[in-house]
Amino acid sequence: GNMLSRGLIVASLAVAAEAFSPSSFMGIRASSGPVAASQGGAVGGSAGLAGLRMQDLDAGNDLTAVGRRNLEDLDGKWSKVGVLGGSKGVGKEIVKRLSGMGVEVKALVRSDDAKKELDAMPGVSAIVGDALEATDVCSALNGCDAAISTLGGDQESQKVDYTGNMNMIENAGIIGVTRMILVTSVGSGDSKEALPDAAYSAMESFLTQKTKAENLLLKYYTNTDYTIIRPGGLKSEAATGKAILTKDTKAAGSVTREDVADLCIEALYSKEASQKVLSCVDPSLSDKDAPEAFKLWPLAPGSSRHRAAG
Fold first, then answer.
1. What is the pTM of this model?
2. CB-based contacts of 122: which residues, under 8 Å, 6+ apart?
3. What is the pLDDT of residues 262-307, one digit of tens each?
4. Considering only CA atoms, which of 266, 286, 288, 287 is closest in space to residue 278?
5. What does each C-alpha distance from 37 to 34, 49, 217, 253 come to in angstroms?
6. What does 14-52 look like in DSSP terms, one character per residue?
7. Which residues face 234 on adjacent strands?
8. Under DSSP, is residue 254 helix (H, G, I), strand (E, B) or coil?
9. Which of 284, 283, 169, 174 has the alpha carbon at shortest distance from 228?
10. Which of 36, 121, 167, 201 lies in the 20 to 30 Å Cα band around 17?
11. CA 58 to CA 93: how far, in whole Å?
């Protein structure tokens, strides 16, 4: 029995690996790759791309969802975003903001009350289910081309930190989700040294599971278009607008949930953020020197966050 189940796991991993193989990820055969790249760089509108897309299809190239997105959707506009963990905290702030932007959202929630609350937001449809169940995660993400997970356990259960996120990561390619934001925590993975020993020990059970989830993307699903965001200590106050993302693995400090939500959405739409692991802290809430900020929009002077005052 054990050997058989191990064989099945290996086989399913092989299938999953195939779903993210470089050839399927690129979506267009190597021969047409340079054409797509050069046209994509030169053409602002979609007229030139429509022609290119037809030529590719005429040539018998089977464009995958990712390939189509690379051709049609160079602005990174997502038609529908799936949110796991959307009933509270950062996840709920993300759902609110996407709804306000006119983006369609599907959210997986645990209760009918949470469903009612999210369903009341324009463009949001919530599904009641359990992130520990792969079938629930799949039905929540079905029809979405991007996904954001802010899943995290409470004191009783850290399982969701790994298993819930694993259900998203392993099934994304099969469902057609081509962009993923995984929200973990400062202290996960190679940011362990950002936390004092006592703080790390107190959170170790969560951080171990979050690190395992990160490693699925960093070591196994390496062709996925992901961004991992590691917030510092979360605060419930109103956004300051001064939080940053940084590659500095020693960065620590606090940050409001609203600011984390804003930066998650900016990262979702930023090509620069693809396949990056970024900590999220607010230097204005700390007396320490600010870490170097990661620029999501390289051409914009300083931060991209031009909020209207007030």
1. 0.74
2. 99, 102
3. 999 999 999 999 999 999 999 999 988 899 999 998 764 444 443 3
4. 266
5. 5, 11, 25, 40
6. HHHHHHT-HHHHH-S-GGGHHHHHHHHHH--SSHHHHHH
7. 255
8. strand
9. 169
10. 36
11. 44
